[in-house]
Amino acid sequence: MVGKLIIISAPSGSGKTTIVHHLLNRGLPLEFSVSACTREPREGETDGVDYYYITAEEFKKKIKNKEFVEWEEVYPGKFYGTLKREIERIWKDKKSVIFDVDIAGGLNLKKLFGNNALAIFIMPPSMEVLEERLKKRGKDAEKEIRTRLNKARKELVFARDFDIVLVNDDLDKAVDEAFEAVTLFLEK
Question: For residue 154, with 0-12 CB atoms within 10 Å meaning exposed, 13-18 middle and 19 or more buried, which class applies?
Answer without folding.
Answer: exposed
